[in-house]
Design a protein that fits this description.
The protein is mostly helical. It contains 4 helices and no strands. 58% of the residues lie in helices and 0% in strands. α1 crosses α2.
Length: 83
């Protein structure tokens, strides 16, 4: 790979609504168990370690159904669109 070229990263945007549902479910499950959901989800997204996510309400299983890259992509896109 040439360091002067930009690599393209493509996503399948057909499951955006499913990603949003999963993130909300995981957020609510973490909150219900008394965790800081933003910190826990950040830990998971950075490390890939599923133990950052509670198994309450199948949150751990749900978040692992979505590629972490797709979650990060959706979070960035959503943040930028709000600005």
């Amino acid at each position: 790979m040439n360091n002067h070229e930009t690599t393209s990263f493509d996503f399948d945007f057909s499951n955006v609504e499913e990603i949003k549902k999963i993130l909300l479910t995981v957020y609510n499950a973490l909150s219900a168990k008394g965790y800081d959901p933003v910190s826990q989800m950040t830990g998971y997204l950075i490390s890939g370690d599923p133990t950052y996510i509670t198994s309450h309400q199948d949150a751990r299983k749900l978040i692992r159904e979505v590629d972490r890259d797709e979650i990060i992509n959706e979070l960035i896109k959503s943040y930028i669109e709000k600005e």
